Amino acid sequence: MCLVTKMMRDNSYMYTNNPFLPKVRRLAVNDVIYRKLSYSQAALKYGTGKSTICKWMKKADSDHRVFIETIPSRPHHHPQEIKPEVISRIIELRQRYHRCAPVLHEYLKREGINISLASVGRILKRNNLIRKPKQVFYGKGKNPHRPLSSFPGELVEDTMHVVKYDYSRFYIYAVIDTFSRFAYAEYRPKVGQDNSFTVIQKAQDYCHFPFKMVQADNGPEFRNNFGFSLQKQHIQIRHSRVRRPNDNAHVERFIRTIQEECFKFKEPKENTANRIIKDYLKYYNFERLHLGLNLQTPAQIVSKVVS
Q1: What confidence tier does 167 reach under pLDDT thresholds 50, 70, 90?
Q2: 0.70 cut: is pTM over it?
């Protein structure tokens, strides 16, 4: 028995990747047509069943030199497959909010769409809508002790972000409460200790809860007079460690979110920056679902604790 015949006998009734089968099917059809073999004789020669020869005859092309390719046995549809409109909705939400699968899953639940979280992740992956996770290296050593955030205002991080425009600079201050993630941001043409303290006052008025501690980096706009002004308001100040950006991880991530969602990775214009930031803060604090808050908004967290 030849090798091809043996492979035919083993795989004649199931899907196979055997590269010789398309040619074997054509040879069997040609034997029936030109050599006048019966279906039984062809089946015996090629080690398969008579019904298989019949199927090959029906699939054969009018030009009998063409191989009869293997057709995958995978069905085109499934009775429990996800509807195309649901897939389109998931893609639409991803492109609108640029959020991860758990957040999109929560949006779909609120819209009454019943789908599993794993299915949402698979749909995003199939459509190349998931960013590859970054590899993080954790060095040796432990972080120094820092106050625990168990109430809004107990630890507030404050920093500024420089945006370059034609070799000139303007600045965006960012303030975020590490407990509730309630945030505030403001455009400033210049930085300084007075400007830093003014931003803290405006942020405290905007958040409607008192600040107990402010953590800032070691920039000159957060020293001396800035610290004295905070102490007069009974607000403690804490500086992050040098060359340790993870100490201000919450506000660094908030700045990145502003770049991604507020300015869409575009260079903001000075005359419209504050208006755009103000509109975005309404969405960020009162509408945007936060993954770190168990898919709640910062305003919901503040209302539960303060009320």
Answers
A1: low
A2: no
